[in-house]
Amino acid sequence: MLQNNYDSNFVEPCNEQCSFCFLDYTDVLSANSLFRGLGKNEIGNIIRGVHHSVKEYKRGELIAFEGDTCDRLIMIVKGSVVGEMMDFEGRVLRVEQRIAPETVATVFLFGENNRLPVTITALEETRLLFIPRDDLLQLFARNRTVLKNFMDIMADRAQFLSMHLKLLGLNSIKGKIAHYLLGQVKEQGKNEIRIPHTQTELSEMFGVTRPSVARAIRKLNDEGIISSMGKNIRIIDKTSLSAFLK
What we know:
By secondary structure, the chain is of the alpha+beta class. It has 2 domains: 22-167, Jelly Rolls (Sandwich); 170-243, Winged helix-like DNA-binding domain superfamily/Winged helix DNA-binding domain (Arc Repressor Mutant, subunit A), CATH 1.10.10.10. 38% of the residues lie in helices and 22% in strands. α3 (133-142) crosses α4 (144-169) and α6 (199-206) crosses α7 (210-222). It is elongated and about 60 Å long. The model is unreliable at 1-13 (pLDDT under 50).
């Protein structure tokens, strides 16, 4: 039995019947952007005060299909998921990968056509926390911090999707890679970057084959535009790299 030693971070479970014990995921939920600026006790009270459910998924198991109605906030408390869609030529495009403690498909939670544009699949053993949309609205009315955090998440996701659409609109593989590398330079704040994705993940992200990605990176390296060694890449000629975006 858990003992309350009057620790300020102590949060009791919702109840004995609850399928989700906040105590097991205190650090995960505290790191979620939705709860930014809130203490662990506050987050625990929020979870206890709304309807919520939890489901576990095995690696490769489908979580939701493209076209499904999005009527619940989905929060990853363990593992990771991927969102994929199929283009008109039948190619599967990896739109994005999300890991704990991130939320999933937040931009599709509201609106008249709140349907998922992607199929969501578990990349590993994954546990998801679901909060119904109506409960989330009640939470927004009670807690302005959570509301602001949600709006920030929505804005960030909209910017990501906008950039991703631009990426898909680039015809050349070099253009897609240049867009990706320059984005990493901006995110990591330096010209010597470490790529957080494998070439297989990049090929799925760009909608091309893995050998095509490898060849394009090798050509950029041979042309002296970048210096590549595994996942470590140094941008040598940013002007020439940017030219591929036109």
